[in-house]
Amino acid sequence: MVRGMLALSATLAVLLAGPCASTVHAQPPTRVTTTVDALIATPVFFHSKQVVVRSGVVESGGLTQLANTRKPVFVLWREPTTPRSDAEIRGEFWDIGRLQPDDSRFSAVDFKPLLQAASGGQWPAREQVFVLLAATSVESPLPAEPLIRALALAPDRYQDRAVTVTGRFRGANLYGDLPQPVNKSRWDFVLQSADAAVWVTGMRPRGKGFNLDPMARVDTGQWLQVTGTLRHDGALTWIEAGNIATGSAPAETPIDVVIPSTPREIPPHVVFTAPIDGETTADRAAPIRIQFSRDMDLRSFRDHLKVSYTGAVPEGGPAQPPAFTYRYLDATRALEIRFAEPLDRFRAVKVELTEGVVSAVDNQPLAAWSFTFITGS
Fold it and tell me: What is the Cα–Cα distance from 189 to 183, expressed in whole angstroms?
């Protein structure tokens, strides 16, 4: 299934406690511990990331999938594997629909059998078919008294039970440790340790010797001990706190991490425009559309999108185009620009995207780009 895929195996110090508070802000987790429900509910958050899930597998027709999932999550093992019971599955998560069929980064991966089984051989839409690349299976029995990592891996095992865990205060998800807000109260905050995190609700994070603001990064990094009841609903897991106190970092424990050779995704580029570059009879009232090769961050277009007339200004003509609005169409990866009134007749129009526009998943920059066209009658 994976032909010639190289895997670089390295032992990285992924700390069950992690570094001290003064350095934690600059060190994102090497991977993310989560549930299969969360992968499927928020795939854009996990796309291209190293993940760890706890799941059984099913094998059929030479293919392996995670068991009991709403949508197919295929597993391509780094090497021939007999999955263990009571095990973690680790790998790099990809939403196949967010990739291009001719993506050269995956030339060593044969997706055809997966697509034949999942979608009749057709390239899927986004958020429909997923894969874990260079996956490994690691035996990992769950402890009776869980750490945050066990709660993140198997919340159903501890649901509605009293738990006590220790982790770093990360504010109201200020570092993007979790894909979704829990929206229980204004004081909700994230507690993080190693490659896992959990929401804490029901109590303001203050007590003897500490008073923390979930919206202030300056308050993050402090170790807290939280006692409460674990709740779990679909893709969301949280602790209803009954007591919060200062805590101490657990002892450091190294974890072996397998890093696959999948290279970083290529930067985005423009693949289509309407009107086309150089057109001489463009519809003055039609919207302008710019389509990209990758999902783009809508926020990054602000202050980086320019539309102007070029050339001499005709007598009585406006110097600048009319006011415009824009929106990003996620389904087609297209930027749509609409003007308050039709463009001037027989004018050369230049559309520019300046440096600062980036992709949605990994903030890869779009090179400065422009195109021109001439309006018709």
Answer: 10
